[in-house]
Structures are given as C-alpha cells and as structure tokens.
Amino acid sequence: MAIVPPASPMQTNREDVVAVVAPPLEVPKRLRFVTRALLTLWSNRKARAGLVILGFFILVAIFAPWLAPHSPTATSFRPYQNPNAVNWLGTTGNGQDVLSQMIYGTRVSLLVGLGAGLLATCLALIIGLVAGFRPGVVDDVLSFSTNLALVLPGLPLMIVIAAYLRSNSMWMILLVIGFTGWATGARVMRSQTATLRTRDFVTAATFSGQRLFRIVFREILPNMISLAAASFFGAATAAVIAAASLEFLGLGNPNTVSWGSILYWAENDNALLTGQWVLVFVPGLAIVLLALSFILINFGIDALSNPRLRER
Amino acid sequence: MIGLRYFARKGAMFLLTLWAAVTLNFIIPRLMPGSPVQATLARLAAGGQTVTEATKRAIEIQLGLPHSSLWTQYLDYLVNISRLRFGMTYSITDESVAHAILAAAPWTLVLVGTSTVIAFVVGTLLGVYAGWRRQTRVDSVVTVSSTFFSAFPPFFLGLLLLYFLGFKYHMFPLTGGYTPGLVPQLTLSFLGNAVYHSILPAVTLVVTSLAGWVLGMRNNMINTLGEDYVLFAEANGLRNRTIALLYVARNALLPNVTGFGLALGAVIGGSVLVESIFGYPGIGSLLLLAVDNRDYPLMQAIFLLITVSMLVTIFLVDLLYGLLDPRVREA
Questions:
Q1: What ipTM score was computed for the predicted complex, to two decimals?
Q2: Both B62 and B125 in a single domain?
Q3: CA dist A196 to A138, A152, A191, Å?
Q4: Which residue of A147, A272, A281 is in closest CB contact with B167?
Q5: What pTM, to 2 d.p., does this model score?
Q6: Residue B144 near residue B156 (C-beta atoms within 8 A)
Q7: A292 vs B180, higher pLDDT
C-alpha cells in the first residue's frame, strides 16, 4: 500500500492516520507517534535529503572521538600546512589538525543550533499559547512584547548583547540566540491558538469541566505540533547561521573548537590571501549543509500542513 | 472620517513602541555586568600601564560617569537623544558620535538600499515564474538553487567571491569603499570608483537575500493558483500570461510587499557581516568598531538608529496599508 500523508494533521482522525501511514506496530503510543511523523516526512523527497544530511552530522558528532585522526587541540604539527597525507585538510596557524577540528566542531555547531532552536521554540510556544488563550490585557501585553522583539534587529542586537556580556562561552551564544529568536514563532502560535480556542472541541472540553492546564496541553498543544516543528527548524537554521556569524566576528570563544572559530582564525591569519582556502571553504560548506538540512526538513513539514505545496 | 480611528490607533501604538525601544536601549547596557570605566581600566592595565586611583577618577571624569540617580540619568538620556546629542565616540579621536554615524550612513544606505531593491524585484519575478511553471524543470532549478543559497551565511559567500574574483583573478578590489587616497566627493570618477568597490558586497547581499523573496512568492503563487477565480478565468479561455500576471501574481504579491517594507526598514542596519569582510565604510563596520573598542556611546546610538528607523518604516507601511486597503481600516 502506498504511503499517503494525511491531508492535514489537525483535521484528520488520528486512528485513520496511523492505519494509513504506519502499519499497526506493537510499539508504545508515544513512539508510534514519532515513527509516524518520521515516515510522513521521509515520503517527501526534499525532507528525506534533509534527514539524511542531519543524520550524517549527528553520527559524526556522536562518534567524533573515534572518527578524528588526531586531537583537535594538540599543536603538534607544522603550522599553515596545505592538505597532505597526514593532515587531510591541512593545519591551522597554531599547528592543529583541521580535519579533527571539523569533526569535533560538529558537536558545538549541532548543540548550539538545536539548543538555541529548542529554547526559542519553547519560549515561542509558551508565549504564543498564553497570549492566544488569554485575550484582553495578558494578550495585549504579550503581543506588544512580541512585536517589539520582532522589530529589534537580530544580528546587531546579538552583537551588542554579546559585547556587553563579555563572557564568551558557547552557552552564552546559545542563550543569546535563543532569547532573541522567539518572536516570529510566538506570533504564528498566538494566532493559531486564538483560532483553536473558539473551536467546538475546546468549548466542549471547557463545558465538561476540564481544567485550563489540561485543555491547553491535551486539546490545544497536539494541534500545534506541525507548527512547532516548523518553527523549531526555522529557528535552528537561523541559530546555526547566527552562531557561525558571531564566532566569525570573534564574539564567541575563539578557543572552543567549532566551525565558526576555525573561520575566525582563518580570517585572522588571512588564510585566503596565503592560499589556505581550505580553512574557509570546508567549515563554511559544513555550515551551509547543516542549515540546508534544516531548511529541507521544513519543506517536508510545510507540505504536510499545506497540501497545495505538496509534490505530485 | 471613518479611517481616523485606525490612524489614531496606529499612531498611538507607534509612540508606545518607540518609547519602549528607546527605554530598552537605556536599560540593556545598565543590566549588563561591568562598567565602561572598568573596561577602560582593564584595557590600560593590559597595555602595561599602571592604574592608580587617580587614573580611575580621570577616566570617570572623561567618560562623564554619572553619580546621579538612575531616574535623573534616564531623564538626561531622553533630553539628550531628543536633541540628537549622543556624546563623543572614543573609537575615533575628536569625533562626535553623531558625526561618525552621519559619515557612515550614506555608504550603507546606497549599498544595502540598492541591493534590497534589486533582490526584491528579481526575486519576486523569479518567484512568479517558478510558481506559474510549478513542477517543471525551471521551477525545480529556481527552487533548489535559491534554497541552497538561502543556507549560505552572508560572510561565507562574500569570502568565496572575495577569494575567487578579488584575489585569484584580480577582477575586483579586495577591501574598502573606494581606493585609499581618493577624497570622497561627488565627481564622476570618484562615484565610478565607489561603484566598482561596491559590486562584490552588493552581489553577496543580493544573492543571499534573493531566496526569501523567490520562495515566498512561489508559495503565494501556488496558493493563489488554487483559487476558484483562477479556474474560472481558465475556463473563460483567458490567455495564460494574462491569468498569471493580472489574476494570480497581483493577488499573491501582498505578503511580499509587506516584507519589502520591513526590509527597507532594516536597510540602515545594513549587513554587519558583509560590510565587515569587505571593509566597507558603513554603519555595520562602525558598529563592529564600537564593539571592538567597547565604545558604549557609539554602540548605543547605532543600535537606537537601527531600531528607530525600523519602527518608523513599519509605521509608514501601516499607514500606507490603511490608505490602500479599506478592509484594514475597519478591522
């Protein structure tokens, strides 16, 4: 039987979807939900490419100690080497192996991208849900803050905050990006919650005496999952690019091994002018590929929730 | 007049947001750990100078460290910015913040403004074409390549262009807004020189921002193509091009126009990254200079400028919307 994605997750009966997409497997309910989501994503060509790239990076990050040929911080090689048999991607100005740095750097880039994306999405969900569910003063205040945060310029704001904070750890970058990137998602989620709030099933739940907490988490939240997923991958894309940009500008910790700091040192050592273009090209390409994988997965999520965008 | 309430509400909202942004600009630096005096002392100490109590007092006087209450500081701040007095920058000797910004702003306005307009026009047209010819080879080429470029951090594309076209093949200059030694003036030869220097940054900005317009427009086109009136127009035997341009594109354009308004508001913020790698003498480079020198007055003023220009643009777009679309006024 062909895999037919559901017309729209919020209008289709849940039992139907499970029957059509995932043949009844004997797995716990929560796991079944994840499998179903992955299978539907997998059926979209672009999303499949994105999942493959993301999976590759996750594997590299997990198995970094086994994959890396040398220590990423050891300064034991001749500096400024071009690619050769020992150092496949050459060495940095400090005599570190670039390939090992790339492999270990995957951890930082993935962590900052996914972590900041998750933080931004959680903030967006909370603010959006509360604002959409509490019309009146609460909604007015939250919507006002959301619009204000939308107006503040992203990268300049991050640069200024990072400059004021002066502690330049990876976590600081993660927090700054997460706390500046929630506004777009919050606005979308607020309007979605506001429309859901007046639907019959929510009214029914209210009349049957369910508590607000339960209504929000059991009735509303499940209908926002595709929106939250789209918002997450959007935020993660922005976070990967923003983290690389901040590190490139020297606002991160240049001693952390990450793709952005390889670029920072390359720029500091004028790598392009000394012919060491590998130092710029390889980390740059890795950042492009990681961001691209998030964008591609988002295409799949878009197609899930909007049938008109689906590939024929 | 019916629309008066709409405009009054938008105006009140604008003033409120403006006040909030100006106040945030006052609060953020004061929430952060450390003070400019400590930063300067640390820099002096790192430079090998002995720091005494007298040095500290001298720096406090030089920076005008306020001993007054936070409330008085806030009122002073409001009075000063309403008179456009932002103090002296300490990144450039003997230069006021206002002067430094005025010197940098035209460069950014011309470079980023032109690039934004080009990216919007080209991107929207490409999006119209890709959406109309959806599921064809042209569509996939346009969609895939713009998706690919939207994943490019602007500085990476800039570095690649700089390396290949600037360094390898010597087609373009490596850095700066004009050849060093020239005096900025409004002559044809100087303008030509400036344009020549701005080609690579402009290409970087256009290519990295093109994707948003293309993909957004394509999605809107596809959504609009599913409307009943399009089917009706087809059934009536209208020519394809007429339907695409006059029926579909015209209705699908609105979200992109809104986005264009916002993009214009962001112009003055420029692209910090692109200006930085091309050493372009604009607002973005100035912001980085301020960050490097912990130049708080300059940093604050630039941030304020970027935010306020964004707010003003959004306000103008809102007003324009109210004028163009009666439905918005009544909502």
A1: 0.81
A2: no
A3: 18, 29, 9
A4: A272
A5: 0.82
A6: no
A7: A292
